[in-house]
Amino acid sequence: MESDARAAVLAAIPHRPPFLFVDRVVDRTETSIRTEWRVAEDLACFAGHYPGQPILPGVIVSEFAFQSGAILVGGSARAGEGVPVLVKIADARFRKIVHPGETLAARVELVEIVGPARYLKAVVTSSGETVAKLSFTVALASASDEKEIA
User: Of the candidates 44, 95, 96, 89, which has an alpha carbon nearest to the alpha carbon of residue 65?
Assistant: First the structure.
């Protein structure tokens, strides 16, 4: 069952290990998604981020939310519209430290669509406690747009 959940994630976005942080989609509608990720104890960033007292970097917590949002909007985009690419991060607030072995849950909601832009908001939790809240925007980019975005 876990492999089926992971296969669905792999089919939804182009990210791959070691930079894939969504293990499974828990629930999904046209305007929201809930995902989970178990933070592995041997995640490479722990070797150098507070050695001896490893803390998951906030940028990785954020990336988990971004990937969850990409699954949401990538699946709801019409064929041929492109892949979701992060273009803006706004109002990110971190409330709880994340340690190895925790399971994170993300709830991402689609707030607005303006042309190729998808405005989203996310709440990431661990054991029911808020880890982070953030807003972000992705744009649907075609292969020809990738050079301009990069």
Answer: 89
Query: Shortest CA distance to 21 belongs to which of 92, 54, 55, 70?
Result: 70
CA angle 11, 62, 90 (to 5 degrees): 115
Among 60, 117, 120, 131, residue whose Cα is nearest residue 90:
120
Of 100, 94, 89, nearest in space to 129 by CA: 94
Give the type of residue at 21: F
Q: For 19-73, what is each residue's pLDDT tens digit?
A: 999 999 999 999 999 999 999 999 999 999 998 999 999 999 999 999 999 999 9
Tell me which amino acid residue 28 is: R
49 annotated active-site = yes
Cα–Cα dist 121/108, whole Å: 6
- Look at the alpha carbons of 91, 34, 85, 6 in this order and tell me if their dihedral is positive or negative: positive
Tell me which of 24, 34, 49, 107 is the catalytic residue: 49
Record the pTM.
0.90
122 and 65 in contact (C-beta within 8 Å)? Answer: yes
